[in-house]
Amino acid sequence: MKRFSESTVRRLSHYYRVLEEVHAEGQRMISSHLLAEREDITSAQVRKDLSYFGSFGRRGLGYNVEHLRTEIRAILGLDRRWRVALVGAGHIGAALLAYRGFRDQGFDVVAVFDSSAERVGKTLDELVVQDISKLPECGDIEMGVIATPVRAAQEVADMLVAAGVRGILNFAPRKLRVPEGVAVRTVDMTMEFESLSFALSQTRGKSRRRAGE
Amino acid sequence: MKRFSESTVRRLSHYYRVLEEVHAEGQRMISSHLLAEREDITSAQVRKDLSYFGSFGRRGLGYNVEHLRTEIRAILGLDRRWRVALVGAGHIGAALLAYRGFRDQGFDVVAVFDSSAERVGKTLDELVVQDISKLPECGDIEMGVIATPVRAAQEVADMLVAAGVRGILNFAPRKLRVPEGVAVRTVDMTMEFESLSFALSQTRGKSRRRAGE
DNA sequence: CGTTCCTTGTGAAAACGTTCACCTGCGGCT
DNA sequence: AGCCGCAGGTGAACGTTTTCACAAGGAACG
Ligand SMILES: NC(=O)c1ccc[n+]([C@@H]2O[C@H](COP(=O)([O-])OP(=O)(O)OC[C@H]3O[C@@H](n4cnc5c(N)ncnc54)[C@H](O)[C@@H]3O)[C@@H](O)[C@H]2O)c1
Ligand SMILES: NC(=O)c1ccc[n+]([C@@H]2O[C@H](COP(=O)([O-])OP(=O)(O)OC[C@H]3O[C@@H](n4cnc5c(N)ncnc54)[C@H](O)[C@@H]3O)[C@@H](O)[C@H]2O)c1
Questions:
Q1: What is the pLDDT of residue B116?
Q2: Does pLDDT of A212 surpass 90?
Q3: Which pLDDT belongs to residue B39?
Q4: In angstroms, what CA-CA distances link B59 with A183, B22, B36, B42?
Q5: What residue ranges line ligand 1, CB within 6 angstroms?
Q6: B50 beta carbon to strand C: under 7 Å
Q7: Digit-coded pLDDT (tens) for B83-110
Q8: Do A10 and B95 touch (CB under 8 A)?
């Protein structure tokens, strides 16, 4: 089966977001140029990305907003709902639970687990926090979110995999070892800070260029 | 001035983290192979990455852990402290404030801003939440974190830039327009979910090679 | 001192991703 | 209808990143 680059998939998400906006504004058609403009992408890149998956546009006209939106939904797997388990009901976990954006895109957090006696049993955003030992029994879950301290992350990942999860969103700053067929995306905020720190260190002392937009 | 790829910088962060671990374990030397092993990188990649910045190893021996650690600290700009302003004292903002990891790496959140009357004046993690209108007056800040709703993100970015910030960590799912010389890193969790959703949709049924990243 | 076993640093090659350039198809206009 | 301008699709060119392969440096040891 063909593989698609991670960057292409990321950009599909961008396009999808732009399409949602444009759709809300009532636009019927959109050109690759306009689709590119809102984010920082060239029109050729847009066309190339979309061409990997099919021919969705019409020459001379551009893309039908509603149609392309539907197509990208299907490509990204957003034409269904996903059952997500959250492990670690701490600061990050609570913030994620409170966020409505995930549900809006089809990601339903249906179970929350923690190991701390203080948290287990409490209700958080309409979900009762369960003990982590109950994870294996929690039915049909497709994705897991790891929001535990780094030392527990690998163990939790193993449990999630054992429970049948094939996609993990990991907030612990650590590479997780998972079997083939399980996808992991790690969000590492410290690394983002370090990347900024590097960028700022590099430009230090450089002549201040005018703010050319 | 020479430019370095974003991926190289990311990996430097990885190496740095491994070095911290290995240092704590008391190891004196480490080979590129061992340095690579803990994350999912080849030893050639490690050597290539490091070679962009200098010759830090010794043939036949590997790298001195303490020395390489110091060098990478300097390269990433972690041999100093950074003053960070946080804008948006909501769910994500509160979670970030509570996190000690940033301070440990030299990132000090020294001011918190919000626009809501409910939040302004409250104390959060030893910092008094200030009204956003006070942002321009808040001394010497190098980085900003945007944890506001998406509709406020661009405006806040403009204010941060006006206040002299040259690095922005953005949690709002939106591309920010900033002048040249200002670095932005956007953490978009919905996009990560969508990336997982895509990966799972692709591998549906058939088991294929796609281990964790 | 020579041999052996490591491991780095780095050109060169390969793989990968992005941009270019152009052909084709479509609607509108005269 | 015929022409024009617009815009998608796509092979080829280009640039960047990763991998390969190996020469050279270094330590240990008899
Ligand atoms: N809070 C942040 O802003 C932030 C920033 C960057 C990275 N992170 C990372 O995110 C993760 C979570 O951070 P946080 O601030 O929410 O931490 P936290 O301490 O607030 O929450 C962690 C939760 O995980 C629970 N837990 C511990 N072991 C567990 C186990 N084995 N099974 C189930 N639950 C378990 C704890 O009881 C706690 O409720 C950490 O790995 C941290 O490094 C957090
Ligand atoms: N919470 C999550 O898990 C999560 C996940 C993904 C993305 N995000 C994004 O992160 C951002 C923050 O999310 P949140 O859940 O923390 O939201 P939140 O509503 O809890 O907090 C937002 C805060 O920003 C403040 N604010 C609004 N306008 C402001 C302005 N102009 N200046 C200063 N402060 C202002 C509000 O008063 C509020 O306190 C949003 O853009 C959201 O899309 C959050």
A1: 98
A2: no
A3: 84
A4: 37, 20, 17, 18
A5: A 87-93, 113-116, 119, 132, 147-150, 152, 155-156, 171-173, 189-190; B 95-96, 98-99, 101
A6: yes
A7: 999 999 999 999 999 999 999 999 999 9
A8: no
Residue B51 Ramachandran class (φ > 0 left, ψ -120 to 50 alpha, else beta): alpha
Sketch out chain B's domains with CATH numbers.
Answer: 6-75 (1.10.10.10), 82-190 (3.40.50.720)
- Residue B204: predicted pLDDT: 66
Residue B113: its pLDDT value, please? Answer: 98
Instruction: Report angle CA A139, A80, A54 to the nearest 5 degrees.
Output: 135
Q: What Rg do the C-alpha atoms of chain A give, in angstroms?
A: 21
**Residues in chain B with pLDDT < 50?**
206-213
Q: Is the CB of A47 under 7 A from strand D?
A: yes
Positions in chain C where some atom is under 7 Å from a protein CB:
5-11, 16-21, 24-27
For residues A163 and A142, give the distance between their C-alpha atoms in angstroms, rounded to a whole number: 9
- List of residues 6+ apart from B116 with CB closer than 8 A: none
Mean pLDDT of chain A: 94
The reported pTM is 0.95
**Residue B170 pLDDT:** 98
CA distance A23 to A125: 31
Ligand 2 centroid distance, CA of A122 (Å): 24
Q: How far apart are CA B174 and CA B159, in angstroms?
A: 16
Question: What is the average pLDDT across A43-47?
Answer: 98
Residue A52 CA to nucleotide C15 C1', Å? 18
Distance CA A122, CA A125 (A): 10
Helix (H, G, I), strand (E, B) or coil at A70: helix
